[in-house]
C-alpha cells in the first residue's frame, strides 16, 4: 500500500515539475505548482503512515491551510496580470531580464 | 561654588549650541544678544566665584564627574580653581564680553552673523576650560578647542582664498606644537602616574632632582607646545596671517584667548619649569629673539593690523622672558594688561578700518584725528599703554618684567633685561609710528570716503578698555605690589621650594626699582621722540634712512624671510614629495589594484547576468536543479 502511494506521489510531483517547466499559461503553471505541493503532502502522509505516526497528518493539515492562503495570493497576482496585460504568456513577462 | 564654577564655561557653550543649531531660525539681532548674554553671564559668575574664593590660599578642586577611567589612569572632569585661575577667568570673560558687544556693531552688515557669534562663544568657552582644567588632558581639550576656533574664525570669510589659507596655516602650525605638548604630557604620565596638575606639582621635587635631564626634556616639549600656541619664534608665522579674520576676532585671539594659553600653561606648571634652569634659558633665548625680532619687523609693516600682530608677538615674547626669569606674577600681569591694551588697539584699529571702508594700509591714512576724535582718543591711550608711557598699564607690567630679569634672586638673566630695554625702545617707536601715520599728517586716502567715528555700540567697549589700559597698572605699584601678593600663594610656594633646595634664604623681590623706572621713562621718551622726528618733524629722513640701509629695510619688510624659508625648505619639498606619492603610489599602484578588482567583479557579473533570461521557466528550472543538488547533498 505504502509503495503504491509513494509511487503515486512521485509521479504527481514529476508531472507538476513538467507542467511548470513546459506550460506557458500562468494559470496552468500555478495548477502544476499546486499539484507538486499536494504530491509532497501525499508523500508526507505516506511516510507518516508507514512509521505509524500521526504527526505527518497534523503537518499536512497545516500545509493545506497555508496553501489556501498562498493560492489566494497567487491567484490575485495572476488576475492582476490578466487585467494589466492583454495576453498572459509568461515568456513575455521578462522585465527582469539582465 | 561648584555649580557656579561649572556654569562659567557652560554658558558660552549653550550660546554656541543655540546659535549653532537654531541660528537659521532665530532673527539676526537675537543671535548676537544671546552670545553677548552668555559671555556676560560667565563674567558675572566669574565675579561671584572671585568674591567667594579670593581669600583662599590653596587651590580648590571642583569635581563634576568621572571622565576617563582606564586601568591606572583616572581622569575626572574637574576644575582646579586657585587665584591664578580666578584672574584668568575674569580677564578672559571680561575682555571677550567687551569684544562680543563691539562685534554687535562691527559685524552687523555680515551675512554670517549667527555663525560668527556661535564660533566666538565656543572660543570663549574653550579658553575657560583651558584655564580651569584640573588635569592636563582637560586642559588639552581647551588647548585644541581654541586652535579649532581660531581656524574657524580666521577662515571666517572662507570664500576669500587668502583667509582660507591663513586659517589652515594657523591650524597646521599649531599642530606642531600640540604634538609636542601631547608627547610631554605622556612622559609626565609615565613618571608621575597621574595627569592631575596639583599632584604633579606637589611630587615634582620628590620624583625628580633639580635640573633632571628627563624633566628638562619634558619641559622643553611642553614649551614647544607653548611656542606653537603663543606664536613664538620659529612658529610665529601663523599669527600675522591670522589678520585675515574679522578684526574683533584678531582682538580676541591676541588679547583674551588663544595666544595667552602658552604663557598660562607655563605659569600653571611653574614648579616643573623652575626645576629646569636649562629649559628656562631656552625659553629666555627664544622669547628674546621673538620679542626683539618681532618689534623690528613691526617697524617696517604697512598693514596696520600686521603691525599690531607683530607687536603682539613681541609682547608675548616679554611674557615668556618673565617666565624664564621665574617672574610668573609679572608674566600674568603683563598678560592681563596686554589683554586690555591690545584688545583696545585692535578694536580701535577695527574702528578705523570700519570708518575707512576696509582700508588697512597706513599709507592711505593719516590725519584721522579730526574726523574720528573718539577713535583717536582711545587709540592714543592704547599706544601710551603699550609703549610704556609712565603710569599706564604697560609701563608697570613691562617694567616688572625687566626688573625681574635683573634682580630675580635665582633666575636673573641680565642679558634678557638689556634686550627687554631695547625692545621697549622699539615698541615705543613702532607704536607711535602707527599712531602718527593713522592720525597725524594729511589724509592721503581716496577722496570719496568720508571717515567717521564708530557707532555707540562699538564705542563704549573701547571706552571701558581705555579705562582699564590706563589704570590697571596701579595694581602692581612696586612698593605694595598687590597683584604679586595676590598671586603669591600660587607661585611663592614653588619659589620657596626651589630656594630651599638651593640653600638660598629669601626669594622675595624686595628692591624698589626707582632706577629701572627712570631708565624705562627715558627709553620711552627716546622712542617717542624718534617716532616724532621721523614722522612729524622730518619725514624725508625716512627716505634717507631707507636708502642708506636698503637690504635691512627690505628684509624687515619681508619679515626676515621666515615664510620664504618655510616655503622653500619645507612646503615646496613636501609638496613635491606628496605629489610623487600621489602620482606613483596612489594613482599608479593602489588605483590599479582597485580598478582591477572592480573589473574582475564586473566581468563576473556580466557572465552571471546571462543566466537571467527573463523566462520564468528557466528560473523554475534553476530551482529544480538547485533542489536536486540539495537532495543529492543531503542524501549523500
Folded structure, characterized:
The complex is a heterodimer of chains A (about 100) and B (about 625). Chain A has about 100 residues and is mainly α. Chain A is about 80% helix and about 0% strand. Chain A is built from three helices and no strands. In chain A, helix 2 packs antiparallel against helix 3. The longest helix of chain A has 30 residues. Chain A is elongated and about 50 Å long. Chain A starts with a helix and ends in a 14-residue tail after the last helix. In chain B, a hairpin with a 2-residue loop joins strand 1 and strand 2. Chain B is built from 26 helices and two strands. By secondary structure, chain B is mainly alpha-helical. Chain B has a two-stranded antiparallel sheet. The chains are: A mainly alpha (about 100), B mainly alpha (about 625). The interface between A and B is medium-sized, with 14 and 13 residues.
Strand order of the largest sheet of chain B: 1-2
Helix content of chain A: over 70%
Question: How many whole angstroms does the radius of gyration of chain B measure?
Answer: 29 Å
Instruction: List SSEs of chain B in N-to-C order.
Output: HHEEHHHHHHHHHHHHHHHHHHHHHHHH
Low-confidence stretches of chain B: none
Low-confidence stretches of chain A: none
Radius of gyration of chain A: 16 Å
Shape of chain A: elongated
Summary tags:
A: Helix Hairpins; elongated; B: 636 residues; mainly alpha; two-stranded antiparallel ribbon; 26 helices; globular
Amino acid at each position: 500500500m505504502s509503495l503504491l502511494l509513494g509511487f503515486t506521489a512521485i509521479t504527481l510531483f514529476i508531472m507538476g515539475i513538467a507542467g511548470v517547466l513546459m506550460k506557458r499559461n500562468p494559470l496552468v503553471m500555478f495548477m502544476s505548482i499546486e499539484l507538486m505541493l499536494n504530491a509532497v503532502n501525499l508523500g508526507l502522509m505516506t511516510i507518516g503512515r508507514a512509521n505509524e505516526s500521526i504527526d505527518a497528518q497534523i503537518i499536512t493539515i497545516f500545509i493545506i491551510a497555508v496553501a489556501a492562503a498562498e493560492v489566494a495570493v497567487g491567484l490575485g497576482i495572476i488576475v492582476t496580470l490578466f487585467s494589466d496585460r492583454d495576453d498572459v504568456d509568461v515568456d513575455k513577462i521578462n522585465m527582469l531580464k539582465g | 561654588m561648584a555649580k557656579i564654577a561649572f556654569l562659567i564655561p557652560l554658558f558660552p557653550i549653550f550660546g554656541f549650541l543655540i546659535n549653532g543649531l537654531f541660528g537659521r531660525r532665530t532673527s539676526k539681532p537675537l543671535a548676537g544678544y544671546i552670545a553677548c548674554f552668555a559671555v556676560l553671564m560667565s563674567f558675572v559668575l566669574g565675579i561671584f566665584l572671585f568674591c567667594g574664593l579670593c581669600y583662599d590660599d590653596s587651590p580648590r578642586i571642583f569635581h563634576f564627574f568621572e571622565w576617563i577611567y582606564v586601568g591606572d589612569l583616572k581622569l575626572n572632569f574637574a576644575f582646579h580653581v586657585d587665584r591664578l585661575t580666578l584672574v584668568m577667568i575674569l580677564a578672559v570673560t571680561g575682555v571677550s564680553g567687551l569684544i562680543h558687544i563691539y562685534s554687535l556693531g562691527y559685524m552687523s552688515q555680515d551675512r554670517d552673523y549667527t555663525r560668527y557669534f556661535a564660533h566666538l562663544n565656543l572660543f570663549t568657552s574653550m579658553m575657560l576650560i583651558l584655564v580651569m582644567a584640573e588635569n592636563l588632558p582637560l586642559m588639552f581639550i581647551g588647548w585644541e578647542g581654541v586652535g579649532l576656533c581660531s581656524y574657524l574664525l580666521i577662515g571666517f570669510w572662507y570664500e576669500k582664498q587668502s583667509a582660507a589659507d591663513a586659517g589652515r596655516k594657523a591650524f597646521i602650525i599649531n599642530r606642531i606644537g600640540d604634538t609636542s605638548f601631547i608627547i610631554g604630557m605622556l612622559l609626565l604620565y609615565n613618571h608621575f602616574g597621574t595627569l592631575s596638575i596639583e599632584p604633579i606639582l606637589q611630587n615634582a621635587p620628590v620624583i625628580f632632582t633639580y635640573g633632571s635631564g628627563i624633566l628638562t626634556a619634558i619641559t622643553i616639549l611642553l614649551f614647544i607646545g607653548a611656542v606653537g600656541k603663543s606664536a613664538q619664534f620659529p612658529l610665529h608665522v601663523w599669527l600675522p596671517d591670522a589678520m585675515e579674520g574679522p578684526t574683533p576676532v584678531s582682538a580676541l585671539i591676541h588679547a583674551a584667548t588663544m595666544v595667552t594659553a602658552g604663557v598660562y600653561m607655563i605659569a600653571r606648571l611653574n614648579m616643573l619649569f623652575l626645576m629646569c634652569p636649562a629649559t628656562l634659558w631656552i625659553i629666555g633665548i627664544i622669547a628674546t629673539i621673538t620679542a626683539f625680532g618681532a618689534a623690528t619687523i613691526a617697524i617696517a609693516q604697512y598693514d596696520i593690523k600686521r603691525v599690531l600682530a607683530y607687536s603682539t608677538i613681541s609682547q608675548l615674547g616679554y611674557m615668556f622672558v618673565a617666565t624664564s626669569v621665574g617672574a610668573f606674577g609679572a608674566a600674568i600681569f603683563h598678560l592681563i594688561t596686554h589683554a586690555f591694551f591690545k584688545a583696545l588697539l585692535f578694536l580701535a584699529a577695527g574702528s578705523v578700518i570700519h570708518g575707512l571702508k576696509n582700508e588697512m594700509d597706513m599709507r592711505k591714512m593719516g590725519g584721522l584725528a579730526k574726523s574720528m576724535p573718539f577713535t583717536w582718543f582711545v587709540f592714543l591711550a592704547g599706544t601710551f599703554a603699550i609703549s610704556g608711557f609712565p603710569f599706564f598699564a604697560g609701563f608697570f607690567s613691562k617694567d616688572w618684567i625687566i626688573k625681574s630679569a635683573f634682580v630675580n634672586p635665582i633666575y636673573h638673566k641680565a642679558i634678557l633685561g638689556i634686550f627687554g630695554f631695547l625692545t621697549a625702545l622699539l615698541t615705543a617707536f613702532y607704536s607711535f609710528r602707527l599712531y602718527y601715520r593713522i592720525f597725524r599728517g594729511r589724509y592721503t586716502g581716496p577722496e570719496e570716503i568720508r571717515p567717521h567715528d564708530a557707532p555707540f555700540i562699538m564705542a563704549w567697549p573701547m571706552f571701558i578698555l581705555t579705562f582699564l589700559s590706563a589704570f590697571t597698572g596701579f595694581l602692581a605699584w612696586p612698593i605694595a605690589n598687590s597683584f604679586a601678593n595676590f598671586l603669591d600663594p600660587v607661585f611663592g610656594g614653588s619659589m620657596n621650594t626651589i630656594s630651599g633646595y638651593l640653600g638660598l634664604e629669601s626669594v622675595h623681590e624686595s628692591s624698589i626699582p626707582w632706577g629701572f623706572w627712570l631708565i624705562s621713562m627715558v627709553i620711552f621718551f627716546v622712542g617717542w621722540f624718534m617716532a616724532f622726528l621721523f614722522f612729524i618733524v622730518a619725514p624725508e629722513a625716512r627716505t634717507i634712512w631707507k636708502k642708506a640701509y636698503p637690504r635691512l629695510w627690505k628684509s624687515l619688510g619681508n619679515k626676515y624671510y621666515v615664510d620664504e624659508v618655510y616655503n622653500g625648505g619645507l612646503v615646496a619639498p613636501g609638496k613635491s614629495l606628496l605629489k610623487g606619492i600621489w602620482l606613483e603610489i596612489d594613482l599608479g599602484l593602489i588605483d590599479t589594484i582597485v580598478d582591477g578588482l572592480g573589473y574582475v567583479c564586473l566581468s563576473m557579473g556580466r557572465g552571471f547576468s546571462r543566466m537571467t533570461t527573463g523566462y520564468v521557466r528557466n528560473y523554475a528550472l534553476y530551482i529544480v536543479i538547485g533542489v536536486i543538488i540539495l537532495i543529492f547533498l543531503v542524501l549523500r
